[in-house]
Please model this.
Amino acid sequence: MLGGAATAAVMLFKSSYGKMIHAGIPESVLQSADPTKTIGPPPGETGTRSAFEHVVKKPSDISSRTPLQDLYGIITPSDRHYERHHAGVPAIDPHKYELLIHGMVNKPMVFTLADLKRFPSVSRICFLECSGNFRNSKETLTPQEICGLTSQSEWTGVMLSTLFRETGVQPKASWFLAEGGDAAIMTRSIPVKKAWDDAMIVYAQNGEAIRPEQGYPARLLLPGWEGNTSVKWLRRLELSDQPYMTREETSKYTYAVKDRIRQFSFEMDARSIITFPAFPQQVAKGWIEIRGIAWSGWGKIVKVEVSTDAGKTWQAARLQEPVLDKAHTGFRYLWQWNGDTTEIMSRAIDETGYTQPSLQQLVNARGTDMGGYHMNPITAWVIQRDGKVLFKPEKWK
Amino acid sequence: MQVNIKTYILYSYMLCMSCKHNSNSTVVLQDTANWPAAFGFGRPATQAEIAKLDIDVRPDGKGLPPGAGDAATGKTIYMAKCAACHGIGAEPMDVKLPGPALMNDNAGADRNKLKTIGNYWPYATTIFDYVRRTMPYNAPGTLTDNEVYSLTAYILNANNIITAQTAMNAASLPKVTMPAKKLFVPDNRHAGPEIR
Model:
């Protein structure tokens, strides 16, 4: 019997082990087999995820959300990074890729991907977040469904200021247009100041080339700013003395504030969410480590406060190192649940002194017509007597 | 030796005074310290390759191509190439179309709550820029400049912003004033505790 199984495994290596490695080992095989009695697949060219793990993004027609509740640490696996695109994912040949910089520059220039990689190469960890990252329709929402349009990577590329030094920027240039090479030919106008601050053109993500969904072979990266401005599949930058008023900065990515419409709203305000315990988990009485992430587009997180009594009192959570500029930051708070119904919630505080608001505070500041973009209210979870955790939606209209 | 160390400490101290962000971390050599004025990577862009990609249109009309169009021609093109996804502005509120509504004035008060070009877009030039770059959604980049001028005229006329007789071209389009323009204000949030 044992001999038969071993022979089968050897046969497998000889015939099609390449295929096995890519597919991973089917769960059925894992469940039936005693791993100490079967030789597994040999080393391969790419790794696999365990067949027991089913951590996936949640796609809609226009976006795909990161499973925040299933992640550990602060780096989002590249293939679980959220997606938002306006005309699908383009296939761009890196050998044909070029970035054109022109307009109010001294020297209009073209850079190939190889050119970009020759410049001093900088890496930084920061989050990206779509400014439409907010759902609150019902109790049965997971962290992924509420705010899964945020993810974090280590990005590598060239500082945009390095390229602007190369082309020269005319003193009167105050904006630049960033344009993508997808079928939407996505465009946004960006103040030149961001280029001198911390903007990058990145070609790598978490140690490898950027994934097609994230802008392969190169994208703009504007740390802390609404995701749409970090134009993917970047093909062109044009320097100008005024914004272009593209569709994505007029019809979209603008929002009602009292009787006005707010435009060019770039920085993502501080936000946090408890990712454990959260819907659809069920917890038991006793010790619970409340866990979550906090982030701010204005700088570092300096503090996260947690309430376990529906917002009556707040305690400081422990911040998990590393605590980085404009980056998802882990927090943890040890709590002993006595089994009574309660609400738990967290609020982020950043280095500018901003404290994540309640929904009511946002309504007070923006009026009841607010919505759509830049919503960062405190997220509360209800823990029922049976240990079931439900999201607490709040209505404001 | 003694002097050297003292000088070094003094030097580091002075460096720290000037670097606001890292005042309590160790002094690092500034990345750009020994950079050349230019690396010389990349190549000059030719006028032809710039012209090929430079398709953007600004509110002041910069970037608008020669050509012209009118609402009547635009309506014919719209019915053939756009209406299937965007409707004609007379659909009941519960009809779900693949594309967003572009007009809001033809089906009563309810429809006027929709955010459309007529009541939400601050600049008419954006219609030309956007439609030329990416519509129709299923065949982006297939319209001629004259077709885009005509479609722009039709959409503006259907939203009661211009008359059916007003032709759209590089001179007239930037002059169209959109009703919603006065509502737009730049972001007034800033770093700090205030919730805005």
